[in-house]
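Hi support team,

I submitted a single chain yesterday and got back a structure, but I'm not sure I'm reading the token output correctly. Could someone confirm the output below corresponds to the sequence I sent? I've pasted both exactly as they appear in my results page.

Thanks,
R.
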Amino acid sequence: MSGRPVVLQVNGNTAGTSRHFVTVVGFNSNVLSSGNLTEKDLLIMDSWDGKVERMDTEKSRFMTTGAACGK
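Hi R., thanks for writing in. Yes, this is the structure output for that exact sequence:
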């Protein structure tokens, strides 16, 4: 909402062996707070293929958490 992109680490598969970064460049305008933000609401630029697309397009990207990253 501040007009700055956000970088997220994602897994490209459920095994967690394909971690890479995506840049969030937009989100669904119906989202009123971060509490109800989901992957389906995010528009990203994926460093894997350079495409701008919805986070949930391929059903193969999974958001990681600090716990999943060992932090």
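A quick pointer for reading it: The mean pLDDT is 74. Let us know if anything else looks off.

Best,
Support desk
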